[in-house]
Design goal:
Distance between the termini: 54 Å
Structural class: mainly beta
Largest sheet: 4 strands, antiparallel
Strand content: 35-45%
Oligomer: single chain
Helix content: under 10%
Radius of gyration: 22 Å
Shape: globular
Length: about 210
């Protein structure tokens, strides 16, 4: 679209929108709107020594641009997946200003695409949180039954902020499992181990470990 006139926008004089929530059902004029909406939220915070602090979004539909205290933090594409940004260096003691631009415009390469069979909601649709973690922490992990062996479990763990050689412990007390591995220079550790008397989940007996 060609912009022919610029208009100064004042968040202080703008309507209030509930988050999490979609704009379609909160504002009558936006019921069928597809495009970008800008939202601002002011919140108090405090920097924590020895911690890393993240802005965590449960979900936002569809393309999201995030700014904290006037600085671009990052972008995320996808309406149904959580995402987060490290804001340790941008967070201020006292009042902070978070600005989020959400764009739900349909495009051939987006979900939903140009032609779809469900309503295209827009907005920050799940909770937004400020999360504090230690300098070194478990960033991600995946533990599952090995695809080629009925009595073997595979585990992948990824650390953030930990040096190579950091010990990673995977423990499943009910199975008397206590396995360790060392993380590599990327913080990744892979484990594979056999288990005895593994009881599988079923609808009749939904066993969880």
């Amino acid at each position: 679209d060609n912009v022919t006139a610029w208009k100064e926008y004042d968040f202080d004089l703008s309507p209030v929108m509930a988050v999490p929530g979609d704009w379609n059902t909160q504002v009558y004029q936006l019921f069928h709107y597809e495009g970008m909406v800008w939202l601002r939220h002011k919140f108090p915070a405090a920097r924590e020594a020895g911690k890393r602090q993240y802005l965590y979004f449960g979900a936002s539909n569809y393309l999201t641009h995030v700014f904290l205290n006037g600085e671009h933090v990052g972008d995320h594409e996808g309406g149904y997946t959580p995402f987060n940004f490290d804001v340790t260096d941008l967070l201020r003691d006292g009042e902070n200003t978070l600005v989020v631009a959400v764009d739900n415009k349909r495009l051939p390469e987006r979900v939903p695409t140009i032609i779809c069979d469900w309503f295209n909601y827009g907005g920050i649709t799940r909770d937004v949180s400020l999360v504090s973690v230690p300098e070194a922490f478990v960033e991600d992990y995946f533990i599952r039954l090995d695809k080629d062996s009925a009595d073997r479990i595979s585990a992948d763990v990824r650390l953030s902020g930990a040096p190579a050689g950091t010990s990673v412990l995977v423990e499943i007390p009910e199975l008397k499992v206590r396995e360790t591995a060392s993380a590599d220079e990327r913080g990744a550790a892979a484990l594979s181990f056999r288990v005895k008397n593994l009881k599988r989940w079923s609808p009749e007996d939904p066993k969880l470990y």
